[in-house]
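Annex B. Sample input.
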Amino acid sequence: MEKFEIYSHTLPFNTNFEDALKCCKILGDSWRLPTKDELNEIFKNHKNKLGDYGVWSSTEYDNDHAWSQGFTTGNIYINPKTNLNRVRPVRTLTSELYGPDRGRDWWANLTPPLAPSDNDASIFKDYLLNGTTLLLGCTKNLIPLSDVQMDIDPWYVADTVITQDWTTNTKFYNNIIGDGVLNLNKELAEKVLDMCSKHCDNFVVRCFNRKLPNMTVASHFPNEKDFHISPTIIEEFDEYTFYIWNFYK
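Annex B, continued. Sample output.
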């Protein structure tokens, strides 16, 4: 299954199948109805967060019926196209949507320095070891550098996305990377660093030096001395610093 991005919310009205297609078309930017399989992936990854209603898929059963899914029970069923259901648009994540040239245009509309620039992504890449790479979170400009992405509430669904708390990871990767993941709070930063020290050879993270405008969730701005495991390499910039830990040494 191709990677796909989920629209920020379910459209707040019931509509028949043909009008559901039109709703997505009006949104533009390649938004569309999810396929039956994509809709089921959305349900599995966002269970209990989407409301108690049926949602249209784009998969047709015949000229008069299409598949839909109930977001209370998870049941997938054939529905007359004249019936009314909700609409949760998606769009396929092509390289134009999540590749290096669009890394600063992610779902929350953050721009550098809050989102990594292309140059920042190249710094991440320079420090990666050969082998597998886990991305903590789903930072759009870093997805092409990673084999899998992990987040407790990912903003898109793909075969490579693991819906999981970062600190509970027990699988080993050659590299673990993250952007701002040590800035959320001190306790989480220590737990993430502990997890990485046990489950990777190489941890590369961009860490903000201070609170910047429009930065709403970060409350921890550590420097080198604040880490309970000393970083191996440090690259300092005005607003942020790259910290690299080589645990295999």
